[in-house]
Every structure is written in structure tokens, then in C-alpha cells.
Amino acid sequence: MLTKPCSIGSCGSYLDGGTNVPFQEAAIPMLEPAVVKKEMIALQKHFRDKRDYVIDRLRNMGFVIRHVPDSTFYLWLNLESLPGPISDGLNFFQACLDEKVIVVPGIFFDLNPARRRDLFDSPCHHFVRFSYGPKMEVLKMGCDGIERVVNKYVLAFFLPVQCLRWGCANWLCFRFKNMSN
Question: Fewer CB atoms inside 10 Å of the end CB: C or N, the chain?
Fold first, then answer.
């Protein structure tokens, strides 16, 4: 018994065949070393500008960033200096979600074979990963949201106690004193 070729299978085979010839030919000039180098430099500047913007914003919020990345578009952000309720990755993540900002809790990057230690004993517990890969407008909104989270909790938890300690009522004074401790 002879059977007709299945048209769906034939269609799938065609779709899996890769990019069509005109697109392949159009891409050839992009492989020229001079073009590759020019595009590489432009891409590095683009991400460096976004990295510098995000780092400046976060440092102005009081975050200490000891290691500035030079070959990625992620920051490993230490939360230990924040008020207790948001000083760990999971709670900071939740507070940021309330501001429509997504960061990734550090514990998701912990290598913990066979779950030998408790989740909250993770060396990554007080960290989040922050990406500066999105568009600059999105990064600005994200940093604004993180600043609202930090201000909300710092004003509620740190400022009254710290001002009594240092005898001041200046929020910037608190931030700089906190960064130096």
C-alpha cells in the first residue's frame, strides 16, 4: 500500500532548514573583521554606559559595590547593609515585586548539592542579581522602584534609631555614615 507524504511533516522539515539564502547572503558583510570590531566597540560602550548609570544610582542609594563588572551585564548586589526585613534576597525580591521591579534572589545561584545546608544558611542569601541588560528607560524605572523600596524601609527601620545614635536628622548623613561602617 502506497501512502502520500504527510504535508505537516514536510512543512516541519522546511521550517527546520535554517535561514533562507537571501538572509544568509545579507549577513556575510557583517562577518568582515572591521565591521565586527566596530560593532563590538559600540556594544561594549552601550553596556558600559548602562552599567555606570546603574552603579551610580545604586551607590547613591547607599549600596556598596566593591567589584564593578567588566565583562557581563549583571551586578551581584549585597543587601546586608539594608534594614532586616529586606536584607536577604527573597524579601528584597518580594519588596521589589511590589514596585514592579524584578531582581533574582542570590540563593537561586547557590550550588548546594543534595541540599546539604538550609536555604537560609546559603552564602548567597544576602545577595540579588541585578541585570543592566534591559533598555535604559526600563533601567531608570527599575532603579526608581529600588530606591522607593530602600527609602521605605530605611525611613521606617533605620532612620529613627540611627538619628538617635548620631544625633542627626539628615537622611544623606545616615547613608554616608552607614556606608563607612
Answer: N
